[in-house]
UniProtKB/TrEMBL annotation:
It is a multi-pass membrane protein. PANTHER family: ABC-TRANSPORTER METAL-BINDING PROTEIN, METAL TRANSPORT SYSTEM MEMBRANE PROTEIN CT_070-RELATED. The chain crosses the membrane at residues 6-27, 34-51, 57-75, 87-106, 142-161, 173-192, 198-221, 228-248, 254-274. GO terms for cellular component: ATP-binding cassette (ABC) transporter complex. Belongs to the ABC-3 integral membrane protein family. This is Iron ABC transporter. The keyword Transmembrane applies. InterPro entries: ABC_BtuC-like, ABC_TroCD. Keywords: Cell membrane, Membrane, Transmembrane, Transmembrane helix, Transport. Pfam families: ABC-3. GO terms for biological process: response to zinc ion; transmembrane transport. It is found in: Cell membrane.
Amino acid sequence: MSYTGWVLITAGLVGLSCGIVGVLLILRRMAMMADAISHTVLLGIVVAFLLTRQLSGYHMLVGAVIAGLLTSIMIQWLQSRGVQGEASIGVVFTTLFAVGVILIATKVGNAHLDVKHALMGEITFIPWTTVSLPWIGEIPEATLILSIVLLVVLTVIIAFYKEWKITSFDPALAASLGIPVIIMHYAFMSLLSVTTVAAFDAVGAIMVVAMLITPAASAYLWTDRLSVMFVLSGLFGIVSAVSGYYIAAWLDTSISGSMAFATGLLFMASFLGSPKHGLASRLMSRRTVQEQ
């Protein structure tokens, strides 16, 4: 596999996994939670590094998941005390992210862990850190981790598809049917945290937020069926990753930033041209009604 091939595969895995998880974020009206967790996982990563003094390993994933769950619990606690949802998200994620930044500046020292790396990622370095697998050979470590995360995401989504559908659209009905809504919520927060941190080192916080929200928002404009929305969102994530890479090569700029920009272009195309909820179709329908 060529250097470009590994970068595209890794970015495509990020787009696919984040796109699938992002559907549930959009339907649950928790889009800003993606922004919160994608930033607060930095604190978990930094704390894991301070405890182990190692920049790689599953302890990073554990630390990030704990930070993600802590973010969700703190936001839920503030909301239960009467703080507005948007305000509680803003307070928690900015505070925990700031603590992570302060720890990097004061405790990490010369380790390759900095704020720029956290925001933009280092996708260009992915092909150089490899692991050896039987019958497969050398593959990038980030690609392996993202493949495992994608498998976990698909398994959890498919295994509990009906539960996700009911709890996303009508939590009260789900509770009346005996579905553990609270457990499903924190299971989803764990899934979101795992997906976020798996992509965090490769592409940074900016692209993680873009891939979690924008492909799903674009898919929402094209269909009202949940299964189709999952497929479209994952596909849009892959298309954004591939097109963003070639935009970056053309402009000689940040790969992760260009991929995030590509998600915005795709959303604008969906917003304008979607035959179901697009701006053009709504204007045509309004004109038809006026003419009648």
